[in-house]
Amino acid sequence: MKKKDLFLFFMQYSQGIISKEDKIKLEKLLKKFPELSEEWEMHLELYEILSDSDTAEFRDWIVDLIKNVSSQKDFSNSKAENQDL
After folding, report:
1. In the chain, what are the helix, strand and coil shares in percent, each to the nearest 5?
2. What is the pTM of this model?
3. Region 39-59 average pLDDT
4. Domain boundary assignment for the chain
């Protein structure tokens, strides 16, 4: 799994916007690869910092960016599926 995909999983999980399927994938990855737990802990610390009211605007920008990336990914996947018809 690419680092950017893992980070996306972490952010979506933290925000409560992760799909059920991706949540299960992430939880399985954390169990299978204990070294990811360290990255997960760092992410949680970062998320806590970003949850501070002084950084709320920046956090909201990141969340919007993640949603946009996810929707573009979903659009690209559906576009590719339609080409198979």
Report:
1. 85, 0, 15
2. 0.51
3. 78
4. 3-83
